[in-house]
Amino acid sequence: MRSKAGMVLAVLAASQFLMTLDSSVMNVSMAVVAKDLGTTISGIQTAITLYTLVMATLMITGGKLGTILGRRRAFAVGLVVYGAGSFVTAIAPNLTVLLLGWSLLEGLGASLIMPAIVALVAANFPAERRAAAYGLVAAAGAMAVAAGPLIGGAVTTFASWRYVFAGEVVIVVAILALLRRVADVPPSPARIDYVGSLLSVVGLGSVVYGVLRTSEWGWIVAKPGAPTILGASPSIWLILLGLVVVFLFMRWENHLVRTGREPLLRPALLGNRGLVAGLSMFFSQYIVQAGVFFAVPLFLSVVLELDSLQTGLRILPLSFALLIAAGGIPKVWPRANPRRVVRAGLFSVPAGILVLVGGMDPGANAGVVAVPMLLIGLGLGALSSQLGSVTVSSVPDSESAEVGGLQNTGTNLGASLGTALVGSVLLATLTASVVSGIQQNPTVPASVKAQASTQLVGGVPFISDKQLTDALAATSLDAPTAAAVVEVNAAARLEALREAFGVTALLAAGALLFTGRLPDRAPGDDGDGDDGEGDGGEGLGEEDDDADADVRV
């Protein structure tokens, strides 16, 4: 019996590992993938963002489909779609096919798989072993974060990034072969709220896509050459549209509840302050984590010109620190105060980012990232060690699958926005700095300055000194002018990265303001007389001593 439980756990943990592996592999291999597909870092940023966006927008719908089909069948269908997406990605000749295979098909498959994992853990493990099972499945995701940069770096350096996705197809086939050993959650009569599904996809998608396009269109004032809507950048209109549609989505769900029909999302869940506290912190963690894993590989692979394997090795301290903290804190301090642990993590992340920014200069070497990676990893791991138990323990077991869908929506939405926001700031700052630097450099002729002011204002690609030197060699620029442009670009890259890291640090520090809602006792602690929740005005130092029975199992 124990061996069967181990096999079931291995199947579910392997699936969680697979869902997390893609992004960490792609982050460390961005420069190589962009070159191989004939696109830019901005193009790969779009693919990363859309992958997590598809998952975020469809996760709740995927959970509802799992209720209708049965969790194991939904899990199997998701694996087939995911495997097909991995195969298409492995043979992708250009960015368009990569977007189809990775961002769309794999995202669709994951939206069926991830909510099913939560329900299948509950169905296959008794209550006394369920928390440990959830923890090990979550640890598998952390292992993917830890191993992804090294796997991606090694395979990309010695073979091709395509083999990673080909290997995923093999893993999918193996999981499907073992799936019969997993006890099913039978289907239940349910109906899909098609209107709610459409509203959630349009609302969340518009917000993230609007943020993603700000680097090319501008936030409010449109950039030169960019389209306009009523005199403003389309980005701000997309963001506003998305917020309005999300509001309409919530109104529609409330309407369904009032009229006795089945909603896509029960709004009452969002009245559970313990659940909302955990979800908001999950969102914050992943928006920061995505920003870090987008910007750090760019610093290593483009600025320092390390290959993919070296980039993965330099990120490894962050990954291992995350894994050790995520698994070690609950084991060493099982009754740790979740609020304090999360706050410590949110202090550690910006501290590591600031140390990194302080060491970034034109003469920096790869060793400058070692200590910052440890601090950032420990901080993210501290959050991972607490937030899963906070959200799951806030509702009865019967609602765990629905909470799993919400949790995965929050994490993937955070990852989408993190990549989009940090990438937007980085590329916008790079463009402004390059144009300004060329205009102010006395070595650059007036004719080149005039060209730069018109041709570069729409966007400057994030490329290495070698790539830029090779590109300039094919132009008519003389050697002194070309050298000056390369110098300006190098300085602008560092400034853009500092701005991007600064935004990430601010996001982590800002999340501290909302930690007052988190409980101050570990879930299941018999001495829990204070759940640590508060009203909407709580901040960093505010606690609420009122017990709230509906946030405990």
From TrEMBL:
Keyword Glycosyltransferase in the entry? The reply is no
Location, primary (coarse class) = membrane
What Gene Ontology molecular-function terms does this entry list? transmembrane transporter activity
Q: List locations, semicolon-separated.
A: Cell membrane
Alphabetically list the UniProt keywords. Membrane, Transmembrane, Transmembrane helix, Transport
Q: Where is the composition biased (Acidic residues)?
A: 525-553
Q: Which GO terms describe its cellular component?
A: plasma membrane
Q: Which residue ranges does the record annotate as region Disordered? A: 518-553
Q: Which CDD domains match?
A: MFS_MMR_MDR_like
Q: Which domain of life is it from?
A: Bacteria
- Fetch the InterPro entries from UniProt: MFS, MFS_dom, MFS_trans_sf
Residue stretches spanning the membrane: 41-62, 74-93, 99-121, 133-155, 161-179, 191-212, 232-253, 274-300, 312-329, 341-360, 366-383
Provide the membrane topology annotation. Multi-pass membrane protein
Q: Which parts of the sequence belong to the Major facilitator superfamily (MFS) profile domain?
A: 8-523
Gene3D superfamilies linked to this entry: MFS general substrate transporter like domains, Multidrug resistance protein D
PANTHER family, alphabetized: MAJOR FACILITATOR SUPERFAMILY MULTIDRUG TRANSPORTER MFSC (PTHR42718)
State the protein's name.
Answer: MFS transporter
